[in-house]
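Hello,

I think I submitted the beta-D-glucopyranose job twice by accident. Can you confirm which output corresponds to this input? Input:
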Amino acid sequence: MKTFVAFLLTFALGSADINPRVFPDNFKFGVANAAPQIEGGWDEDGKGETIWDHLAHRHPEKIADGTGPDIASDSYHKYKEDVAMVKAMGLDHYRLSIAWSRILPTGYPDKVNQPGVQYYKNLFKELKAAGVEPMVTLYHWDLPQPLQKELGGWLNESVADLFAEYARICFGLFNDDVKLWITINEPKQVCQSGYGYGELAPAIASSGVDDYVCSRNILLAHAKAYHIYDDEFRETNKGRIAMVIDTIWYEPGSDSPADIEAAERAMQFNYGLYGHPVHIGNWPQVVIDRVAERSRLAGYPKSRLPEFSKREIDYIKGTYDYIALNHYATNMVNASDAPVKDTGYWNDIGILTWRQPQWTGGEGGWFTVVPWGLRSLLVWLKKTYGDIEILITENGYPDKTGVMEDDDRIAYFEGYLSACLDAIYEDGINLTYYTAWTIIDDWEWLGGYTWFMGMHSVNFTDPGRARAPRKSAGWFTDMVKKRCLVKNCVK
Ligand code: BGC
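Support: Only one job matched these inputs. Its output is below.
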């Protein structure tokens, strides 16, 4: 019946695709960014080198335009301007990350860098004055370089302990300022890309072996930080904490059982690799079985997937207060087994991905504009892990021209926000936050300054890094004000 009413409403308004409903009162709008992508000041006021500073300085050829995050959008100096823009857009929250190496320059907890602490204190003060809630990520890919060099980074379990110490320091320092915490951003990118395919820093290529070791350690790191928060800070902080997991939506490429199974397998390897240990306990069974079998067939003495002990499984299980989701795109999936001798994460999954010819896409190869994919993903999360509050912590659209009349970006936001409304009203998903990536152009990792994702442009050739609103900034501001996507909103 509800579906029928919504259909009639949509039909009556003459806009076939856009949901006309008003967002619920508790729904929050915000924008996200990350320290290494906007702050700059890479070695200022005592900040230490990160694995990304290191990669960009030593291997500029790996970055599309050969540039690093040294200055980026210069938010280290211009944060007041950024906060003023967030306020002007009427946003509820601002997702940012703390740079580990600004607080602890070497990564070790031996010396807290006061100017670094002060920078974030100032930023939180500014946000408070603007009435904007900070959503704070402790780790957005920027491992302090000494921990990579001396310990091997996330391949060493002691880095999980060092992360936990750093987290404890942050919880203590910013206990009065932050109530919404994120431990780690996108562990799959950190591990499967950083230690698997060697694309992202620290650019280690050992897919199907070291990336799983990283996955295990990063899950332990997250769980340790969660328990520290739970045991020592929750009572005074009265906030919430979770890990951000990202995934593409994998849609079966046909209705054959093999393709349906392949799509579910892709979801389990992509989201479930991290979601299952946190929500259900241990790796997903399909991951355990596939990696064990493929390891055996390839002659490995044991599975390439490291085990968790019973104690570790219980320790990681339940370490969430909400689901934090980053999502950008959708792929179609067919089953396709890779030869067993080809070790590698994607070979373990055994799929072929493709896009529908009518899908439009942004830059970067993997961006497809498929709003219904988000809706399907939200429904999958509820079906797989239960009725848990979901916060979208990233969703956005890149282009390579930096066009100011960014109608494609507007269409993207409109479509994905409409899918959020469908999920809320049609599917009963407890979705409460939408966080757009992003408010200003930033340093897009391997894309350098060649991908534009901001609702405001940044002039990267201007030493003042001047910001200017794109058309999408105006559209988003109006949408937040109206709290819906069409002219005649329906309560
Ligand atoms: C990351 C961001 C990144 C965005 C767009 C996400 O995977 O969390 O840091 O900029 O994608 O590429």
